[in-house]
Amino acid sequence: MEADSIASSVGPVATGEPPFPYRTRCLVFVRVLLYPCCCFLEAQTLLLLHSSGWCVWFGRRTRSLWDRFIVEVCVWFQGSRFCEWEFPAAVILLELLVECTIPKDDGTLASFVGFRVQHDNARGPMKGGIRFHHEVGAHLSLSLSLQNSLLCSVIWQSGTSFRSMIATVSVCVGTMLLLCITSGVLNKVDPDEVNALAQLMTWKTAVANIPYGGAKGGIGCSPGELTITELERLTRVFTQKIHDLIGIHTDVPAPDMGTNPQTMAWILDEYSKFHGYSPAVVTGKPVDLGGSLGRDAATGRGVLFATEALLADHGKSIKDHRFVIQGFGNVGSWAAQLISDAGGKVVAVSDVSGAIKNPKGIDIEKLLKHSVENHGIRGFNGGESINPGSLLTEDCDVLIPAALGGVINRENANDIRAKFIIEAANHPTDPEADEILSKKGVVILPDIYANSGGVTVSYFEWVQNIQGFMWDEDKVNAELKTYMTRSFKDMKEMCRTHECDLRMGAFTLGVNRVARATILRGWEA
């Protein structure tokens, strides 16, 4: 079946069982309504226990009791008309908000907003990172209060005394949250950015042809302002709130901005308290807990393989080409090192501390050592210091944005001199810049393919955990190259079929695969 006919036949689910479990729908409804109240009571309990020195043991027991209470209320809700909701197959399946209250090391309490967005599971378990960042967004706390007030008016109409009680609690909680917002008590979280990233994961895993859907989540916090013990408490509380919604064959989190293998280890341990030891519930773990060899370099190595495939398609190779790399974190540093090892010449690099260039080529090994010792590339004597804002317009053959999104825009697109752009970051090129660069003849390798190496090796880790058989690093890297090369060929074939550029070809390929799975599972209208 042609891609266009498949995509056009996908619509909302009109009948039949929605694409996630009945009990989960009850759980989401009750948690959105009752969690703020539970978190408030939990905070008061923790404050008392902390002052008496029994916080650690009883704190965990208290949270377990609140979770048990919510699950029991879910059972009561079974059969309610609120569980008859219908969900479209191609929109957000679930968007969950929780409040995480922890005691800080100084004895005070702090509240943070956590969330998990699940977009699509037509092709398999949902997959997506968990990020800890203070600029995840705004407005979700307000929407929760308004939603509580709206839900209470609906429940009130049912007439039973128990539901009336819940409605009253909801009104009180809604008012309490509004007061918290105005006083700046809660960290604020905006779902729009996370929803977009969850959808991006759906298409990315489809383009890579691995059996996953898309999800995203995190906590609105500043990790640098929290101690290691506070981060552990926060991660464990968040896991307690969402452990019923993630799972080996349901939703598999991974590290993202502000999180790392240690964060995944805490999630694994906390999840295992409820469901037994389950190493496949998260990926990006430490190797000692079932993490995959090669995972740390996977995204950067995937960028290398993607660049090789693109240049080969144009009759070129990495050797002797000049590269500019924006971002020298995990992805950028590995990409720079591997490209340099393959014979490429990295002529300019930037990170949060500054930017440097050297037309003769930067010694990446020395730069890596300097970056580790000085927490950034600023002050490196192997190149000339330049304005970070001018890095994207430096003369080069290949530009690799590997930092933030939206850095290539209409203001600088006309000044970019690279012939190829490899999008190692998520959505670094905005639509206006994309059009300008396309008219200039610049070839852009889209992010949903170019940076898919990380999620591909996460899939390998998941497979190894389920099999209980670990691969050596050479096998991981060889399999990654196979997947990246095959995905590029599939994407190019789609471009030839529809006479479109690489970005449109990648999205057409991803949507086509998701649409086919949706139809085969019987979810079409």
TrEMBL record:
It catalyses: L-glutamate + NAD(+) + H2O = 2-oxoglutarate + NH4(+) + NADH + H(+); L-glutamate + NADP(+) + H2O = 2-oxoglutarate + NH4(+) + NADPH + H(+). One of its GO terms (biological process) is L-glutamate catabolic process. Substrate binds at residues 127, 204, 458. PROSITE patterns: GLFV_DEHYDROGENASE. NAD(+) binds at residues 299, 330. Residues 292-522 form the Glutamate/phenylalanine/leucine/valine/L-tryptophan dehydrogenase C-terminal domain. The record marks 256 as: Important for catalysis. InterPro entries: Aminoacid_DH-like_N_sf, Glu/Leu/Phe/Val/Trp_DH, Glu/Leu/Phe/Val/Trp_DH_C, Glu/Leu/Phe/Val/Trp_DH_dimer, Glu/Leu/Phe/Val_DH_AS, Glu_DH, NAD(P)-bd_dom_sf, NAD_bind_Glu_DH. GO terms for molecular function: glutamate dehydrogenase (NAD+) activity; nucleotide binding. One of its GO terms (cellular component) is mitochondrion. The active site is at residue 216. PANTHER family: GLUTAMATE DEHYDROGENASE, GLUTAMATE DEHYDROGENASE 3-RELATED. This is Glutamate dehydrogenase. It comes from Zingiber officinale. The lineage of its organism: Eukaryota, Viridiplantae, Streptophyta, Embryophyta, Tracheophyta.
